[in-house]
């Protein structure tokens, strides 16, 4: 009786904690990239700068909705369209237009109906679907090789999809550039028919890309070893400001006869971050194979998220399908790339003005959204904790987050920490 009374007097929260199914669930670490934004939001210092996540900001540091996107949205709203489910593989005209943007309008497999494709939940969703598809159906060696370093989410995406993940050399700390010899050596040394992931342009996190000549050589090496290539193209337009130029590697490999897998994102180049708009596609041998691959794409997608979201695909489709809006969008992409490059030069010259003895040449040599500073995790901690400059632990900064208003504080902070 006494025992029963004392049990009922125990505070409810204690009882609940003791009985909860999840009582022993360990706390996970924050996400290496998105966790930086969470920490940034908690900081109350007025000088704080968020250079963690790769999201474009305008000259005043504000999120930027492209005017072409606003115009497309107005059209879509005006049409009073329904909200029905999309097919499992997405909005057909978007799929066609997005594939054309990547492969080029005169691409042979595109013209011949040999590209199996499905709209995806942005680049991450494309990679996950590709990973699941490969894990289930690729008949050879199920190991995927990633560059060292690679985007932090690549490894969990492919491991969770059921693939084994290994690395090839990519970045050379000493030159703060590409270790091309090491890259070729490792790709040659991988067992035949391995899966090789390449960043198509604007490598994340290093901002270091192979030259066109080096891509040609890589295509030969891959062909000799009969490897399967998976291109992650999340930044088409962000490397050079020109979407055709940035598609060079993809188009060269396709022209050389590689049956590539391609993952596209419209998060960066259209600023459709939260709309989750992308494409996963496979270059196949003939229309019959395309149809079979597409049927398996449907079987891969349906149990994960059934079918993709509508609004972002409509926006991208409206822009890509209208000559005038498309031209406007291309100039806006160039505008974003130009502002980023301007900020690279400004940051480098401010560091020089402060008397930094380091060569910050790599900041202007690297391309795309990121600069890889080549600094230690301890130096990153000092930037975050003492100077309120938020960046990822590997020393990557999103140059898209730098503005005329914060570049001086950034340069001074880097100078104080690195010298
Ligand atoms: C990044 O690398 O910052 C972006 O691709 C955003 C993300 O999801 O990690």
From TrEMBL:
Gene Ontology CC: mitochondrion
Entry cofactors: pyridoxal 5'-phosphate
Domain (Aminotransferase class I/classII large) ranges: 47-414
InterPro entries hit by this protein: Aminotransferase_I/II_large, Asp_trans, PyrdxlP-dep_Trfase, PyrdxlP-dep_Trfase_major, PyrdxlP-dep_Trfase_small
Domain of life: Eukaryota
Family as reported in the entry's similarity comment: Belongs to the class-I pyridoxal-phosphate-dependent aminotransferase family.
Subunit relationships: Homodimer.
Protein known as: aspartate transaminase
Native source organism of the sequence: Malassezia cuniculi
Primary gene name: AAT1
């Amino acid at each position: 009786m006494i025992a029963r009374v004392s049990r009922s007097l125990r505070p409810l929260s204690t009882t609940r904690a003791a009985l909860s199914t999840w009582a022993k669930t360990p706390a996970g670490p924050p996400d290496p990239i998105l966790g930086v934004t969470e920490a940034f939001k908690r900081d109350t210092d007025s000088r704080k700068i968020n250079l963690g996540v790769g999201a474009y900001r305008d000259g005043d540091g504000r999120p930027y909705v492209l005017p072409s996107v606003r115009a497309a949205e107005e059209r879509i709203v005006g049409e009073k369209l329904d909200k029905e489910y999309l097919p499992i593989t997405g909005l057909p005209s978007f799929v066609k237009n997005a594939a054309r943007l990547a492969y080029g309008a005169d691409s042979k497999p595109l013209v011949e109906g040999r590209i199996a494709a499905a709209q995806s939940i942005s680049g991450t969703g494309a990679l996950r679907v590709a990973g699941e598809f490969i894990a289930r159906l690729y008949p050879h060696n199920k190991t995927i090789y990633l560059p060292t370093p690679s985007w932090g989410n690549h490894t969990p995406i492919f491991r969770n999809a059921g693939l084994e993940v290994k690395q090839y050399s990519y970045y050379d700390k000493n030159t703060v550039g590409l270790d091309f010899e090491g890259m070729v050596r490792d790709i040659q040394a991988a067992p035949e028919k391995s899966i090789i992931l390449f960043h198509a342009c604007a490598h994340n996190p290093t901002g270091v890309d192979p030259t066109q000549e080096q891509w040609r050589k890589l295509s030969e090496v891959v062909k000799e070893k009969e490897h399967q290539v998976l291109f992650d193209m999340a930044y088409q337009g962000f490397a050079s400001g020109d979407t055709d130029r940035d598609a060079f590697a993809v188009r060269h490999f396709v022209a050389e006869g590689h049956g590539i897998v391609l993952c596209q994102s419209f998060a960066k180049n259209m600023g459709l971050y939260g709309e989750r708009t992308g494409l996963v596609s496979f270059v196949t041998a003939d229309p019959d194979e395309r149809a079979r691959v597409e049927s398996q794409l449907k079987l891969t997608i349906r149990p994960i998220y059934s079918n993709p979201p509508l609004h972002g695909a409509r926006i991208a489709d409206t822009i890509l399908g209208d000559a005038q809006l498309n031209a406007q969008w291309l100039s806006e992409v160039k505008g974003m790339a130009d502002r980023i490059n301007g900020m690279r030069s400004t940051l480098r010259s401010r560091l020089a003005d402060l008397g930094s003895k380091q060569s910050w040449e790599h900041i202007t040599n690297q391309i795309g959204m990121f600069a890889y500073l080549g600094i230690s995790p301890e130096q990153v901690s000092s930037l975050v904790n003492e100077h309120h400059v938020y960046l990822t632990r590997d020393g990557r900064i999103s140059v898209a987050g730098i503005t005329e208003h914060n570049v001086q504080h950034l340069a001074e902070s880097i100078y104080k920490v690195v010298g």
